[in-house]
Amino acid sequence: IADSVESKNIQYVAGMGDVTNRNIAAEWQIAYDAIKQLNGKVPYSVINGNHDFYDAKTASSALIPNAQQLGPTAIDSYFGTDSAYKAQFSGENGGLFDENSVRNTYYKITVGETKWLFINLDFAPSDAVLAWANKVVASHPDHKVVMTTHGYLHMDGTPISDEDSSSLIGEEKNNDKPVKIESSVTTDAGTFEYGTNEEGDYE
User: Is the pTM of this model over 0.90?
Assistant: First the structure.
């Protein structure tokens, strides 16, 4: 990709998660060394997949002797400490859900006369992250919106839960409660819906 930015007129590269297979340091280092070649050549985003959530409590951790599975914050140890990568999501062109993390980001570009808003979310984003994303969309009504996440809903519309993704264990887990759609934000790209779960965790 880095060598083809100009010839193929690449404007943005959106990662789709599962940066690693087992979420161990050796895999993260290989991935980081490869992906960082995009720095200064084209804007890009990296997000967690379910494999990037694996930690010591994950069943597969027993299959990796002498290697620690790092949990969902591993992405911050690599891309979060890369000043060139993180700088993309500062100032007028982008933003972070958490100033101390690159797990949920957004980035804006203009291609020709079209304004694009890329929202890049963690695997099975939490209620708080979804509420933040909706606010970002609502504040950019003149942008076409592309939202990337490794996974959030099943084909039947129910949210991914711990029961079908063993990578998420403990307090930091995904949005596993039924969602009631209450409102939406409409852009030229379509409709971005939001609502509350049964416990009313966000507006």
Answer: no
